[in-house]
Amino acid sequence: MAVTSPLRTASDLLRLSWRPYALAAADTMVRADVVDPARVAEFVARLRRFPGTKQAQELAPHVDGRRESPGESWMGCRMLDAGLPRPAIAHHVVHRGRDYWLDSAFVARRVAAEYDGREFHSDPHDVRHDGDRRGRLGHELGWAFVIGTRERIFGTDDAFEQELGALMNVTVRPRTW
Q1: Measured between alpha carbons, how far is 104 from 62 in angstroms, rounded to an integer?
Q2: Residues 92, 90: Cα–Cα separation, whole Å
Q3: CB-side exposure of 113: number of CA atoms within 13 Å?
Q4: I want to staple 25 with a disulfide (CB 3.0 to 4.6 A). Which of 13, 56, 137, 141 is the partner?
Q5: Nearest-CA neighbor of 23 among 84, 65, 54, 86?
Q6: 103: enclosing H helix or E strand
C-alpha cells in the first residue's frame, strides 16, 4: 500500500483543501507533533507546478500548533485573509497571580480575538465564565475582545474582521470565502 510521508500529507492538505480547513489540518498535524512547521514551510516553498501551490505557499508560514482547535485555525485564516497583522497565538497574560491565555492577541493594541466553539462555550456556565474572564481583563487591563464563532467566521457578515480592523485602525480586505 502506497502512503505519503507526514510532510507530504501536510503539503497536500495545504494545497488541496479549502483554505480554512487547510490551515486547520496543518495546525493539527503540528500540534500532534507529526510535522515541524518550519519543515512544512520549507517543503512547500520548493513546490512548483502542482495544483494549489500558491495557496499552500500563502498558508504554510502561518501554520502554528499552538492553536488548540480547528475553530481557532479558521479564525486565524479569516484574519490572515482580511489583511490583519499577525497576532500572537496563545498569548499568556498573568493578572493578580492568575494565568490567562488569549487565543490570538494583537498585544500592542491590547486586542484579542477568541474563538467560542459550541462544545466549550455555549453552556450557561461557560458563557458566564467567559464573560467574567473577558470583563476582568478588559476592565482591569484594558483588553478588548472580538469573538469568533462558526457563524461569524463562515457566514456572509464580515463584522468579525471589521470589528478587529476598527480596533486596530486597519482597513480589512473583503471576504473571498
Answers
A1: 13
A2: 6
A3: 32
A4: 13
A5: 65
A6: strand 98-106
- Condensed to tens digits (0 to 9), the pLDDT of residues 26-82 reads 999 999 999 999 999 999 999 999 999 999 999 999 999 999 999 999 999 999 999
Question: What whole-number distance in Å separates Cα of residue 164 and Cα of residue 97?
Answer: 28
- Which of 65-95 are b and which e, b meaning 16 or more Cβ less than 10 Å from the residue's Cβ? bebbbbbbbbbbbbbbbbebeebebebebee
Task: Report how far residue 86's alpha carbon sits from residue 80's, in angstroms, rounded to the nearest whole number.
Answer: 7
- The pLDDT of residue 123 is 67
C-alpha cell at 171: 482597513
Q: Identify residue 135 by its one-letter amino acid code.
A: G
Domain annotation for the chain: domains and CATH numbers: 6-65 (no CATH), 80-168 (3.40.960)
